[in-house]
Specification:
- This protein is of the alpha+beta class.
- It contains ten helices and six strands, in the order H-H-H-H-H-H-H-E-E-E-E-H-H-E-E-H.
- It has a six-stranded antiparallel β-sheet, with helices on both faces.
- A hairpin with a 7-residue loop joins strand 5 and strand 6.
- Helix 3 runs antiparallel to helix 4, helix 6 packs parallel to helix 10 and helix 8 packs antiparallel against helix 9.
- The radius of gyration is 49 Å and the shape is rod-shaped.
Length: 426
């Protein structure tokens, strides 16, 4: 799970998901605002049509009041024309009002309480208006009281038109507000997308491109001979793992080449051990490192040289038992061994004095490197650390590979070692 949280692929996927969510969310929000705006414009058109019909109805009534028929022939003409047009206007107003009510019911997003109440009041006023107009025209359809009806329209239609006009203004204001919201939302969506894209580009430049460039620089420095060069690791994603692997490779290369260079030069055992301790420290952090000269039996040995993180190197010049350290009882066949938990090892192998002494001194893990040669000299390198499981598989493999080279070089230099054992402190 840590890899998933820190992995470069996971970060890229997270960025893409965020960008997708922002884009899709903005699109859905804008679509919702657009649909609401379209619905408002549709309803606004119906309300404006209602206003137009009301104004036409008022104009028709006022015109007839000013030009009422004065003889039977004119009256008969008005019955045929004016009444039909008047009833037609009333029917159109009625149909438009019903259509407006259906539109409001179908679009909940635009049906706020004020608008619903306004339409309800208009519907009630219009019902009273129609009833009064019918009463003024009279029950006889062939001889309606046109002048009475026209006066009723002239006197009562302005109130109806005023309510319609108020609805038009309210819908117009709401429609304009939706348009402004849609415009602001569109601009906001573009800005958010630009910000997310800019952040992604900056992260890619500083989090990926720059780190790749640093890796290339590191490779060039090592290629030019700067062995041991260490790159900053930073995060634990794939590039961080690449930096860790590069640093490990650089440290191992420096260690191997430095040891090869030193062992090719004739020196004494003390100097060779000092060089080994100095060169291995960056790659194998150790709290206690010792070189034990193994006896002919292979069961014990003497701690000849040591370097420690404490002021005094423990066990120096002491004879220690090597029993119980390796899976093979024959030291000549022993291989590099990692003891991740010294305390547990001492419980399982009570005969191992060295492991017991190291555990008593506070060390919790150890790396044992047997140095076997065809000559009489044999040795054992012991790396100890105060933390359990301090040594990783790559370190075990490297020291196992270097063991034959170290054994031959140290065996050669052991012939010219000083008479007295040396105390080395760090």
């Amino acid at each position: 799970m840590n890899f998933m949280r820190n992995g470069l692929q996971w970060k890229v996927l997270t960025g893409l998901v965020i960008l997708t969510v922002v884009t899709v969310g903005s699109q859905l929000w804008n679509t919702s605002l657009y649909r609401t705006s379209v619905a408002r414009y549709t309803v606004l058109g119906e309300v404006q049509q209602l206003e137009t019909t009301g104004e036409a109805l008022l104009g028709r009534g006022q015109h007839y009041v000013n030009n009422a028929a004065r003889d039977f022939e004119s009256y008969a003409r008005d019955v045929a024309l004016f009444k039909r047009e008047l009833i037609g206007d009333v029917a159109r107003f009625d149909d438009t009002l019903k259509s407006l009510q259906l539109s409001i019911a179908a679009h909940d997003a635009i049906a706020d309480d004020a608008l619903v109440d306004g339409i309800a009041r208009l519907d009630g006023a219009w019902a009273d208006y129609r009833s009064g107009l019918h009463e003024q025209l009279g029950p006889d359809e062939n001889e309606p009281r046109l002048e009475w009806g026209a006066r009723f329209v002239s006197n009562n239609q302005p109130a109806i038109n005023a309510q319609v006009h108020a609805l038009v203004e309210r819908f117009q204001a709401a429609t304009d507000s939706d348009s402004r919201k849609a415009s602001a939302s569109g601009i906001g969506s573009v800005l958010v997308s630009l910000i997310v894209t800019a952040v992604a580009l900056l992260w890619f430049f500083f989090g990926v491109t720059q780190r790749i460039r640093a890796t290339v620089t590191g490779c060039q420095r090592v290629a030019s001979g700067d062995f041991g060069y260490q790159m900053p690791v930073g995060t634990k994603d794939e590039l961080g793992q690449l930096a860790i692997a590069f640093n490990s490779l650089s440290s191992r290369t420096r260690l191997v080449l430095s040891l090869l260079d030193h062992l090719q030069r004739r020196s004494n055992l003390a100097t060779s051990f000092v060089e080994l301790a100095r060169e291995s420290a960056p790659y194998i952090p150790t709290d206690w490192l010792a070189l034990i000269e193994v006896s002919d039996s292979g069961n014990d040995g003497t701690v000849r040289y040591g370097v420690s993180s404490t002021p005094k190197t423990a066990l120096l010049n002491e004879r220690v038992s090597l029993l119980g350290l390796f899976a093979q009882r024959d030291f000549a066949k022993a291989s590099t061994t990692h003891l991740p938990d010294l305390r547990r090892h001492t419980v399982e192998h009570g005969e191992s004095r060295l492991a017991r002494e190291l555990a008593r001194l506070g060390y919790q893990s150890a790396l044992l490197v047997p140095l076997n040669t065809s000559n009489e000299w044999r040795g054992l390198l012991v790396f100890a650390h105060q933390s359990p499981g301090a040594f990783v598989e790559d370190q075990v493999k490297l020291m196992s590979s270097l063991a034959p080279m170290l054994a031959n070089g140290l065996a050669r230099n052991a012939r010219v070692q000083e008479a007295e054992p040396a105390l080395l402190e760090s």
